[in-house]
Write a structure and sequence with these properties.
Radius of gyration: 21 Å
CATH class of the largest domain: Alpha Beta
Order of helices and strands: EHHEHHHEEHEEHHHEHEHEHEHHEEHEH
Number of strands: 13
Number of helices: 16
CATH topology of the largest domain: Alkaline Phosphatase, subunit A
Bound molecules: zinc ion
Number of domains: 2
Shape: globular
Largest sheet: 8 strands, mixed
Strand order of the largest sheet: 9-8-10-1-11-12-2-13
Helix content: 25-40%
């Protein structure tokens, strides 16, 4: 038996007036997801425990079968793991975004762009090198990641600053969260020095000249220490792989003991190498039991508020990932159980995540349909949940449901 979880990041949305009160998932043409839905079981999964921030970190940790209340230590240590950084117990990792801020009247500061125009890694690595050269100390060290996403390692104790994700503040005033760093002189000095270095860096001069958002500040958030999680092999005797373009997901995979498959051309955006991901998933299942495939593009479209891109990303996930994987497995003659879902909603109107329970398909190649006659959508998930009175599955129990361990207690 082979086991799969296919995740379209942030696919869920709210009804949109422009779409006659339908969602992008309802409007998108998704024949493969719809057919899995009709041949399988549809229910709602609660991926974000009450009181937790609805981040991809918490949500995907749940989907991988780990109770966030027990295992979540922050987003940055997971990304650090994906980058090959080994945290010692006295170190804390902070996610360090390169962002575009604009000072305004009345001491306000606006978050123009949480991703500094999705700066290229070539450019951002030069900026991070300059920050490391100018700001590193016994306490602080910068590590370059991908595009706008980097890591600051902090040695020893650090103050509680109630950090917030910058993508929650697109277009908004961030003077209040900034003030929380400024209460601590060492941190205020770090931010000021970083801004001073970035302000005069030729990369930013070039970006401004080209009409692009400059990376004129760092934004520190998602901090945490090293998580200690039992691997999926230890827990379930499973061998498996994880396929994603995103460091956070790779870090989750590393900590869960999965092999990380880096697919050439996997970008996390609309131009990602979907076909390569689907093929890599099928290849990995020849020798392993489990694969987790994550596609980031619908979430990025949600954060950017781009309706057509979101519909396109959902259709691509269906046609280029779900479809080929399903067909490939059927051709292989292998029995399989497959979950297709999302980690959370990223409504276009909010441009950030919410903690609504997510519609989830469970398909078993050996079982007949449960009688769901609906296409895959947010509404269908709610309707089926009511019809079957399943009660909402908690995210971390999904893995057990996939493996049918729940039946054996
Ligand atoms: Zn996500």
């Amino acid at each position: 038996m082979k086991y799969l979880i296919l995740v379209g990041d942030g696919m869920g949305d709210l009804p949109i007036a422009e779409l006659s009160n339908r969602t992008p998932l309802e409007v998108a043409n998704t024949p493969f997801l719809d057919s899995l839905c009709r041949q399988g079981e549809l229910f709602l999964t609660h991926t974000i425990p009450d009181g937790y921030p609805p981040g991809s970190d918490v949500a995907n940790l749940s989907l991988l079968g780990y109770k966030p209340e027990e295992y979540y230590t922050g987003r940055a240590p997971l990304e650090a793991a994906a980058m090959g950084i080994t945290l010692s117990p006295e170190q804390t990792a902070f996610r360090c975004n390169l962002v575009t801020l604009a000072p305004e009247a009345d001491n306000q500061v606006r978050m123009i762009d949480y991703a500094a125009g999705h700066i290229s890694s070539d450019e951002s690595h030069q900026l991070i090198a300059a920050l490391e050269a100018g700001c590193a100390s016994d306490t602080f060290h910068f590590h370059a990641g991908v595009s706008y996403r980097h890591i600051l390692l902090v040695q020893g104790d650090y103050p509680q600053m109630n950090t917030v994700p910058p993508h929650d503040f697109t277009g908004k005033d961030v003077s209040a969260p900034l003030a929380r760093y400024r209460e601590h002189p060492q941190w205020a000095a770090l931010l000021d020095k970083a801004s001073a270095i970035l302000a005069v860096h030729p990369i930013n001069a070039e970006r401004i000249a080209a009409g692009k958002n400059p990376a004129n500040a760092i934004w520190l958030w998602g901090e945490g220490k090293l998580p200690t999680m039992p691997t999926l092999t230890e827990r379930f005797g499973l061998s498996g792989s994880l396929i994603s373009a995103v460091d956070l997901l790779k870090g989750l995979g590393v900590n869960a003991g999965l092999s990380i498959i880096n697919v050439p051309g996997a970008t996390g955006y609309l131009d990602t190498n979907y076909e390569g991901k689907a093929q890599a998933a099928l290849d990995s299942l020849r020798s392993q039991d489990f694969v987790f495939v994550h596609v980031e593009a619908p979430d990025e479209a949600g954060h950017q508020g781009l309706l057509q891109d979101k519909i396109q990303a959902i259709e691509d996930f269906d046609r280029k990932v779900v479809g080929p994987i399903f067909q490939g497995l059927q051709e292989s003659g292998e029995n399989f159980r497959l979950i297709a879902t999302m980690d959370h909603f990223t409504p276009l109107c909010l441009r950030t995540h919410t903690d609504k329970p997510v519609p989830t398909i469970l398909y078993d190649s050996q079982q007949t349909a449960s009688g769901c006659n609906l296409p895959f959508s947010e509404k269908s998930g709610e309707a089926e949940d009511k019809r079957l009175h399943n009660g909402m599955a908690n995210g971390e129990l999904l893995m057990e449901k996939l493996l049918e361990r729940h039946k054996n207690g």
